[in-house]
Write a structure and sequence with these properties.
By secondary structure, the protein is α/β, with parallel strands linked by helices. It is 53% helix and 12% strand.
Length: 234
């Protein structure tokens, strides 16, 4: 939620919500928290609903009226962003013109066949964007892509193209990369010594995300008589 104002306009509150499927209970809950925001902050609220499929977006965009038909009390009419009304931005020059629009585009076009080019254009521009602005965009796109395959594409692009950024996602990616390399070192040492590595040991090593533990296992792998022995003191 953010308070926004264009030059010369009255400020308003923008609430952003993701909508993954049609939910008949949503209109009532949206009416409730829109009224709550107005009562608490004394600013006019606006609701932006972000969808990743057209059917849900068109459903969410329909005005909903509350009250008796002969005397409606209020009408809920959210602003909806979906793949049908958001542009497909694969040109970094277009992304640079409006980062907020480009971010919405990247999230709503998660299922688009061109999503790889869309995300690549984003990282191209974010490389030259101040970290105070780029980092929230990195995190917002990561959350917005959810469980779509594009989420893993985004993580890889951030790891490679934006490796110098400091943000929760980039820190997580660097930690994952460090752990993966350390696990490979443990297995490589055992293989070089001719030690058979059972599948259970391999899974435990590659599944470990703690670099310090992996370094400990690596030291033991140099002299351990068997693969299982690297865990002997645990």
């Amino acid at each position: 939620m953010a308070a926004l104002r264009r030059s010369g306009d009255e400020p308003f509150l923008l609430a952003v919500e993701a909508q993954g499927r049609k939910d008949p209970d949503k209109p009532a809950s949206r009416a409730y928290y829109a009224s709550y925001l107005l009562a608490k902050y004394r600013l006019q609220p606006m609701l932006l609903v972000v969808c990743q499929d057209r059917a849900t977006a068109e459903w969410a965009a329909r005005p909903v009226r509350f009250g008796p038909p002969q005397w409606p009390l209020l009408t809920l009419h959210p602003l909806v962003a979906g793949p049908h009304n958001m542009p497909v931005l694969t040109d970094p020059a277009e992304v640079r013109k409006d980062l907020a629009l480009a971010t919405l585009s990247a999230i709503t076009q998660a299922a688009n066949p061109d999503i790889g080019a869309i995300l690549k254009a984003m990282t191209h521009v974010l490389r030259d964007t101040p970290a105070v602005l780029a980092n929230p965009i990195v995190e917002l796109i990561a959350q917005g892509l959810g469980t779509y395959p594009a989420a893993e594409t985004w993580r890889k692009l951030v790891a490679v193209d934006l490796s110098f950024y400091k943000s929760p996602l980039s820190d997580e990616l660097r930690a994952e990369g460090e752990a993966r390399r350390a696990a490979e070192d443990v297995l490589d040492v055992l293989a070089e010594r001719g030690i058979a590595v059972p599948e259970a040991v391999r899974e435990r090593v590659t599944g470990c995300g703690d670099p310090e533990t992996l370094r400990h296992w690596l030291r033991r792998a140099v002299t351990a008589p068997s693969a299982e022995a690297i865990f002997a003191d645990e």
